[in-house]
Design brief:
By secondary structure, the protein is of the alpha/beta class. 22% of the residues lie in helices and 33% in strands.
């Protein structure tokens, strides 16, 4: 796997460790800095308007800003983009094309929905993004096929992000589909099950939100 950009947001974080590899870029987005401090993860970049951090954290940001200004990107509180989206744009500008977002779900529902839209933004930029937590992964599929390795266990749910997703095919899972139409007003694709066999999901025309939960085996993301 190539280098990736790890963005730590201020949502719920259920993991006890975030693994980084050489060449990875770690960005703490606003309140995500407190998650990084708790996990002992040193961010390469700290970004945000810092309206969702404790007073002592805000003071530590001010101190870092004086000592290492290149590590701090201070954003205005009144802006069009979320802190997470700003962090993703920073990663894109630095050449990263794979993004793993921790602390991007839970907490405020509007922020979770905004982060799902950020996954679509990344897809439109030719990049791949994942919302990760301790129990699963969320990503989007747009006019493509994704593959899952043998040994996966747990549940796979698919949701159409537009009115329709056409030509949806699911193979190697408990409930297969062949060129089905998924709509955004009928949750047909929820709670499919991995069988331990290699599996795939494809969509010919549309945008699917893919949620993988309570799995084991060889990882959270598709191949």
């Amino acid at each position: 796997m190539g280098k990736k950009c790890i963005v730590v947001g201020a949502g719920e974080l259920t993991v006890r460790k975030i693994q980084r590899e050489p060449g990875d870029l770690v960005i703490a987005a606003d309140g995500g800095l407190e998650h990084c401090e708790r996990l002992g993860l040193r961010p390469d970049l700290i970004l945000g308007d810092f309206d969702s951090v404790r007073e002592e954290t805000a003071r530590s940001v001010e101190g870092l800003e004086m000592q290492m200004p290149d590590r701090i990107v201070r954003l205005p509180r009144e802006k069009d983009e979320t802190d997470t989206l700003a962090a993703l744009k920073e990663g894109l500008e630095r050449g990263y094309r794979e993004f793993c977002i921790y602390g991007g779900t839970g907490g405020r529902l509007d922020h979770t929905l905004a982060n799902i839209q950020c996954l679509l933004y990344l897809k439109g930029q030719g990049a791949a993004g994942y919302l990760a937590d301790g129990e699963g992964t969320v990503f989007v599929i747009v006019n493509e096929t994704v593959h899952f390795r043998r040994g996966m266990e747990g549940y796979l749910s698919l949701f159409s992000l537009a009115q329709e997703a056409q030509g949806v095919t699911v193979e190697g899972m408990k409930y297969p589909l062949h060129r089905a139409v998924l709509r955004n007003d009928f949750p047909l694709g929820i709670s499919n099950e991995f069988t331990g066999e290699a599996a795939s999901v494809s969509v010919e025309n549309g945008q699917l939100l893919c949620v993988v939960q309570r799995f084991s085996g060889q990882g959270t993301a598709p191949e």
